[in-house]
Amino acid sequence: MQKNRSQISRVNNAQGKNFENQIMSACLGYLYEGRACIDKIPEPFGVSKKDQQTGMFKGRFFGNKKAQPDFQGTLKGGKSIIFEAKTTTKDKISLKVLSSHQEALLEKHYQLGAITAVCVGINNDFYFVPYALWRLCKEQWDRQYFTKEDLKEYKVRFNGAVNFLDFVNGNNVEFMKEFVKG
Q1: How far, in Å, CA of 128 to CA of 121, rounded?
Q2: 72 with 38: CB under 8 angstroms?
Q3: For residue 27, what pLDDT band results from cuts at 50, 70 and 90?
Q4: Contact 166/172 with Cβ under 8 angstroms?
Q5: Average pLDDT over residues 83-110
Q6: Ramachandran sector of residue 12 (left: φ over 0; alpha: ψ -120 to 50; beta: rest)
Q7: pLDDT per residue over 48-64, tens digit each?
Q8: What is the per-residue pLDDT across 150-167, written as a single tens digit (0 to 9) for each?
Q9: What angle do CA 171, 40, 38 make, to 5 degrees?
Q10: Residue 164, number of CB atoms within 10 A of its CB
Q11: 3-state class (DSSP) for residue 150
Q12: Within 13 Å and on the Cβ side, how many CA atoms surround 57?
């Protein structure tokens, strides 16, 4: 039996929400440690109708076109950080998963010296990919995706939380030059 598009969409949405929750768990840990204060940016939402008597309302999400990158905050010492979160069950992550608006905002923050990245989940492995590498792939390589092998240097620790500031190789985002404009 083949899944219809709405079933696939629900599964993908649930997977994305789970991934974001795993990232938010790391954000809480970093806040507790005094290492960072990073917040999930709410999805664009608008109220279309409100009942004045009950306070109930109807609304809708505006979709990807106006979406901001998913997370933004500050690391200890004052450095800004902004990143998008994307996950897939496929064996590679397409560069097309970012909207043009998200790319433009990451680019602006990158140009201003913020730590910018895409937090990626590929089949239960997690990576924190510098936006500088993401844009290089798009501009100079002959393909529009990354594989796990391409990203192995940026694989992050996972303990139920996606610890995006801590790489399995022992490096930490705060001390890596490839995350900020040089």
Answers
A1: 9
A2: yes
A3: very high
A4: yes
A5: 93
A6: alpha
A7: 566 667 666 565 555 54
A8: 999 999 999 999 999 999
A9: 45
A10: 28
A11: helix
A12: 10
